[in-house]
Amino acid sequence: MSTINKNNPFKLGLLVLTSLLIACSWLAMPYFFQGPQLMQNVGNESRNIRAGNISLYLTRQLINTSDIEITATLASSEYFQFVDRANIISELRPDKNIIFFLNETIHRGELPTQLPKAVLHIGEKTYLPNFEEGPRNVEHHRMSIFSFPKITDDGEIIDLSSSDRIRLYISNPYLGSEKDMTFVASWDLPYSIPPEIKTNSYITPIAMLALGAGLLSSVLTPCLLQLVIVFSGVIAGFSTIPSSQNNSSFTSPIIRKKVLNIAIFFVIGFVLLYAIAGAVIGAIGNQAQLLFAEYSRLVSIISGMIVIFLGLWVGIRGRQNLTCSIKGSEKIKELSNKDSLAAIIASMGYALGCTACFGGAIVATLIVYVGAIGSALIGAGIMLAFAVGVAVPFLLSALYISKSKTIISFLSQNSRYLSILSMIIIITFGLILITDNFHTVSDLIYPYLGLT
Questions:
Q1: Which of 79, 212, 221, 353 is the most buried (most CB within 10 A)?
Q2: Coil, helix or strand for 14?
Q3: Start-end ranges of CATH 2.60.40 in the chain?
Q4: What pLDDT digit, counting tens, does each position of 411-439 carry?
Q5: How many CB atoms are located within 10 Å of the residue 141 CB?
Q6: DSSP 182-247
Q7: Domain covering 49-188 in this structure, CATH number
């Protein structure tokens, strides 16, 4: 086994840079594919037909004459699961509010400048909106949003199951009337979208691959750039054999195997995490986005603490001294098992923090372009396809490192220094999660890559 030529740092730097480029080869996706366009093309016609059917199912006509048309859509949680309005769900919160989209079209004269008055009737009780939004100075068409809280200011919980119907009253002085004209829309309770309307039959295995590729080339690029750096720190920290003897002939063969082993377990960690996240998103749909909006900071903090703990452990393990004795060999085997477990935890911890930081974007993307709602299998399949697209370059990079005598010898002879460096890298990115500076780092990297 040859050892590193300490007078030739250029060769070492070139080899390390090559391994990093291999690990980042997934970056070719954003340059060659328009992620949103790729996802939008998958079952585009089928998705549009389904979204239209669902919207139609939840829409009621208040009036339809040659002079005026008014329709109201009950934007339930199911509505947001299928119709391309997932980008505003975190603002409207259908889990906490009863939401209606009101469309007014007038063919004679102009619409009143003020928004309509909206009153919700449930049983014998009436409720006023806590939020209303829409343009006022329009001529012939207007779309407005009205939101009614499910818990009133008095602490009353609006129980939809207590009534068999809800009614929405809309009033405005239409058609030049001196007094308000009032129209009513009603929905029978309980309402449920028929299964045949919300089918996901157009999501084939090939479509899932395309959607995973689209996700890889758009939404999660910032997360993955930082994951590559964490991966490098884990490889450098967990693959070394702590020893003061710098016995390259003894440690190099072990390190060669450990590099691949650590890489495999690191990849398993984030692949599992993303597949589970996809399954959760697929199973509960827009509720996942609401959960991310509610708990993303907490998840990021917990993930950051886990990553920091593992960073500290890298520093502690680097201070050990494992010799060539039989007892030392047993310690190496025990340490290798701990390293494998730590690699999985570090990978899942950072990937979880990444998912929390970009949770809203992930869910919105899956809902808008994929419609993977009510199917944990579809959600997991899409995220699995995405994760494998990242995993393959990582594993190829580890294979390249394991074949390089120069890098392996360097890892063997500089274990303690590398442990300190790895500790700093891992702790730094743990702090990034805790302090919510994830996007800041990405914004610094992006301009140099020509990405937006």
A1: 353
A2: helix
A3: 49-188
A4: 888 888 888 999 999 999 899 888 888 77
A5: 12
A6: EEEEEEESS----TTTS--TT--HHHHHHHHHHHHTTTTHHHHHHHHHHHHHHHHHHSS---SS--
A7: 2.60.40
Query: Quick one: tokens of 191?
Result: 């309402």
Nearest of 365, 372, 346 to residue 279 by alpha carbon: 372
For the segment 261-284, what is each residue's pLDDT rounded down to a tens digit? Answer: 999 999 999 999 888 888 887 777
Rounded CA separation 228/236 (Å): 12
Query: According to the model, what pLDDT value does residue 226 have?
Result: 83
Tell me, what amino acid is at 446?
Y
Q: Structure pTM? A: 0.70
- In sign, the C-alpha dihedral spanning 44, 45, 48, 51 is negative
Q: Mark residue 110 as left, alpha or beta (left: phi above 0; alpha: psi -120 to 50; beta: remaining).
A: beta
Cβ-proximal residues to 45 (8 Å cutoff; 6+ apart), any chain: none
Closest CA to 229 of 384, 10, 438, 400: 438
What pairing do the DSSP bridges indicate for beta strands 97-106 and 141-149? antiparallel
Spatial neighbors of 345 by CB under 8 A, at least 6 apart, are 269, 306, 310
Helix (H, G, I), strand (E, B) or coil at 167: strand
